[in-house]
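Hi R.,

Here are the chain sequences for the assembly we discussed:
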Amino acid sequence: MTLVLFLYFAGVIVLTAVLVVASRKPVNSALSLLIMFFHVAGLFVLLNAEFIAAVQIIVYAGAILVLYLFVVMLLNLRAEEGYHKQYIVGLVVGLAILIEAVFILSRSGFSDRALPAGAPPADILSGNTEGIGRALYTTYLFPFEVASLILLVAMIGAIILAQKGVFDRPTVGAGFKPAPTDRKMD
Amino acid sequence: MVPLSYYVILSTVVFLIGVVGVLIRRNIIIILLSIELMLNAANINFVAFSHYLQTLTGQVFVFFVLTVAAAEVVVGLAIIIALYRGKATVDIENVNLMKW
Amino acid sequence: MVIMDALIPLLPFAAFVVIGLGDLFGRGFGPRAHWIAVPAVFGSLLFSLVAFVSVLSDGPHDMALYTWAVSGSFQASIGIHIDALTAVMLLLVTIVSALVHLYTVGYMHGDRGYARFFAYIGLFTFSMLMLVTAANLLQLYIFWEAVGLCSYLLIAHWYERPSAAAAATKAFVVNRVGDFGFAIGIFLVFRLVGSLDYDKVFAELPKHAGETISVAGFELPAVTLIALLLFMGAVGKSAQLPLHVWLPDAMEGPTPISALIHAATMVTAGVFMIARLIPIFNLSPAAMDVIATTGAVTALFAATIALTQNDIKRVVAYSTVSQLGYMVMACGLGASIAGIFHLLTHGAFKALLFLGCGSVIHAMAGEQDLRKMGGLKSRLPVTYATFYIGALALAGVPPLAGFFSKDEILYRTLVSGDVGAVFFGVGVATSFLTAFYSFRLIYTVFHGPSRVDPKVAASLHESPLVMTVPLIVLAVLSVTAGWAGLPIPGLNGIEAILGPVLSPGESIERDAGVLWALMGVSVAVALAGWMAARYFYFTRPELPVRLATRAAALYRLSLNKWYVDELYDRLFVRPTTRLADRLWRTVDVQTIDSAVNGVGGSTLAGARILRLLQSGQLQHYALVMMVGTFVILTVYLIVR
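And here is the predicted structure of the full complex:
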């Protein structure tokens, strides 16, 4: 049963991932990503990480993706004309690495690893949310605090960067002098 | 039971799709989305290992990855907005001032 | 006692340093430089006198100043070693140097390089003094080179003149040829003996008398080879044939240094060296023959050239070469006492002649051509009188100094062996020519109708006291110096002083009959030369020109110095410059320069290519990163 679910989720994930990368319209890409997020959350539930699944949907799908959509709408982006000039090379390299990675993985020993016997440890048993909470506030307290600082920095950065008047294009006739580029190395 | 290697392969495939996306696309927004793909792939890997090793460390790490991803998206999009204001384009081929 | 010995060379050196530093830092001493140099050299003279007296009464002084080199078993130090020979040389050098210093105050007055001149003659005096007080071959060689350097610096004193610069270079290069042989000789001495100290070498070298050294497959007798190589140094330094060519050109330098360096001191270093190292030369009769022959040929050769030269200083220069030939010949015939005696007297009268020339040139405002002089005796009385005395001494007229020393040499040639008569003949012929050209100088410069340019004639004046006093002192010495070596047993001071050093154990006996006959011959020859010169240049002054046109080939040969310079130019100078030019073109420009430029060029080319990596495109960079990842994975797969 789990296998079927896994295959479904995995399949959709891969499909939507490809759609994200291949779609011409940015909105289509964003929406594909949304679907992918949902299915990743499903995968997490399959792996007994319910809290993480919930957080995935709330944060990724509910916040990050919304932000993306805001920006896409704000900038009124149109469909793209074509891929980058190097798209063949990129595909080839990606494919090559994939083959190599599969090769490496197949040679490693954990494909047959079974679940460890015996009772799972106490933190697993008491439910995902409580377990994570306990871990966060005891063992991983310091990274937790640092993470909050990261968020603070990001917020400040975003506010500053998005201010009007800092990076705007100067209007014509306002004493505009283009910065000289150093092209003397011929 | 789903073997661990399936999850790892899945994670690898999604990651490489994200890499290819970064290499191929010209729209900066899509490039950022591909980066999110990569982060998600890593998350899948973490949670899979956490489940199979019966420890919570992986999931805690996913928590932090999520946090950092959020922060990164925020700043990245702010930069893109500033870039758009300066150049009226999000085509990455035009962003080449660091050319020799 | 020892401090005074050390001060002899160090005082002039201190003068050099002080004046030199004054020029380097600050405004320099300029016209006040003589206040430092002159007292220094007179102090040196004083201490030399003290040392002379002390050595005669107490014996040799020895003092090591400084250990120069210690390398394995080899050790050499710089020090002061004064024995009888060194003591007389010290006197000669300091007396002439002091008088020249005084003379320079007047002669170089107003010259732009006044202080520099004093600095360099101080350095020269120091080097010469250290050379004669050396106790080992290393110090001898070092200061041998140093006097060569000072000669270069002083000849090119007026360095803006291309001819002066060229003459200085020529002097240095020709000297270097001789020094090359000298150095190899010293190396061989070290190889055989293991030490460079005089006493060790003199003691050990006889033990190697029969040995040979293999050179390019030939087995050459060691001691003869060494002697010949050492002699090469003397050939260069004392301007013997074939390395004599630099001395006449050295007349480009100011006259005071012609007197100091090229008459009395530096050129005599070669003769001094032969006398100093006579134990080495005595071991090789073959080398001694070469030395004597070279000296004799040079004496005659140079005298023939002096007959026709028109530059007043060149006549005296060739005369110096000729007289040096006499000294070298004497040493080669085993009569080094006579050689040194002549060195001392020659130092006096030749310096006198040169300074006299300087006085004339000074009065003539720089004119040096004989043909533009004449009748100067009334305008330059003191110069005339002293010059006359110098010429008499040079010609060998008794009772002046030159007569006794030259006579001693001639006597030695007669008694020296089977071929002595040949050397004697050469000596007598040269004597005749010497007298001739000496009085030629007198008559053309001072007597007869004045051929002086009217503009110059108006400013003709006798030289100031600072210049005439040295002339007078040297004239007195020219008269009296010979009396130190009277050939009367018991009265011969030179023999008494130098005998123990230069020919220990030999008793000098003279055959009285031969001696008196010889003296008669000498006087006759000198008078003959004098009378001939008087006839040609005073009584019938039109005769020389007629004779010159009649014997045109001979005349040209003599006037052009037997074309030796031209020969050297063809043989050595031109091929060398051509080779240098070719090397410059191919090696320096084509190979080295292009290699260096090529490095730069290839760097630029490489950069032009590598630059393309910096496209500014973000995705290019990302691609490169992924390619790198791919490579790492591949390597991992291959290795594992």
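Chain A has a mean pLDDT of 81. The radius of gyration of chain A is 23 Å.

Let me know if anything looks off.

Best,
T.
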